[in-house]
Design a protein that fits this description.
The protein is mainly alpha-helical. Strand 2 and strand 3 form a beta hairpin. It folds into two domains: 85 residues, DNA polymerase, domain 1 (Orthogonal Bundle), CATH 1.10.150; 178 residues, Orthogonal Bundle (hpI Integrase, Chain A), CATH 1.10.443. Helices cover 58% and strands 4% of the residues. It is globular and about 65 Å long. It is built from 14 helices and three strands. It has a three-stranded antiparallel sheet.
Length: 295
């Protein structure tokens, strides 16, 4: 089955244009599944049936995997066997009628505007790292882009004169995102005073670079954010997506329409964006309960 998995991964990459992160997710799920099948002496995909897949899912539950992880794994298996059916490797899809576990939708963590101000005030602009970190955090909150999109930005993707970013999202879909004047000023300050001094090679195209003079990595940015989150003493975990969630929620709270926020976030389905309306409704309810004399 490993050979079929390689063909499937190649199909997802070339034909579907999925991102590296999505491909890695599929591979993790399916390698786990294939390893389990091999332990059950099931080496060929045409020997897999619905019962053996259900046994694997039960094993995941017994081992404490979250419903979201099991649901994603089930979707990966279903998609894999759809591919094998299309390729003529199997004649029936044993994963066709699989039921995914119900997932309780949790509202994302959102910072208040005061907490965002506190977090973004942590980088000290007295050194090169501080100037760069300030620019990255301001840009992340100003645009709502994902951390993978942030570190993938090239210099030519940033247009301070027009006030827009060109970024490549999931599946390498390109979109244009507006950026506010505050973030533009901080990115310009980084470009004018810092970036050239951190470079090791002149042909590096990355907008944000690390101390090695190369493109910033996801892990590198995570470490930077964690450091400033600790310094800010804000309760609860703060991740790069926390700023993305806060960006969307603050826009809606201040009157932005849902379609515009969907476009800026790069969501293909507006139902994904609608979760932020639940947060704003909850906020309105809290304000009402705190302020109305007969609440």
């Amino acid at each position: 089955m490993q050979n079929h998995l390689k063909n499937y991964t190649n199909y997802l990459s070339v034909e579907k244009g999925l991102s590296i992160n999505t491909l890695e997710s599929y591979n993790r799920d399916l390698n786990k599944f294939i390893k389990y099948m091999q332990e059950q002496k099931i080496e060929s995909p045409d020997l897999v049936n619905r019962e053996s897949i259900n046994t694997f899912i039960v094993m995941l539950k017994k081992n404490g995997f979250a419903s979201s992880s099991i649901s994603r794994c089930t979707a990966s298996i279903r998609s894999f066997f759809n591919f094998l059916l299309q390729e003529g490797v199997i004649t029936d899809n044993p994963a066709l009628q699989l039921n995914s576990p119900k997932i309780e939708k949790k509202l994302p963590r959102v910072l208040s505007t005061q907490e965002v101000d506190l977090l973004l005030s942590q980088p000290k602009k007295s050194n090169h790292n501080g100037l760069r970190d300030k620019a990255m955090l301001e840009l992340l909150y100003a645009s709502g882009i994902r951390v993978s999109e942030l570190i993938s930005l090239d210099i030519n993707d940033f247009d301070p004169h027009v006030g827009f970013l060109r970024c490549r999202g999931k599946g390498m879909k390109e979109r244009i995102v507006p950026v506010g004047s505050v973030a533009i000023d901080h990115v310009n300050e980084y470009l004018n005073n810092t970036r050239a001094k951190m470079l090791r090679i002149n042909n590096e195209s990355a907008l944000f670079i690390n101390h090695h003079g190369k493109r910033m990595t996801r892990q590198g940015f995570w470490k930077i954010l964690k450091k400033y989150a600790r310094q800010s003493n804000i309760n609860g975990e703060i991740t790069p997506h926390t700023l993305r969630h806060s960006f969307a929620t603050h826009l809606l709270e201040n009157g932005a329409d849902l379609r515009s926020v969907q476009e800026m976030l790069g969501h293909s389905d507006i139902s994904t964006t609608q979760i932020y309306t639940q947060i704003t409704r909850r906020k309105i309810r809290e304000i009402y309960d705190q302020t109305h004399p007969r609440a």
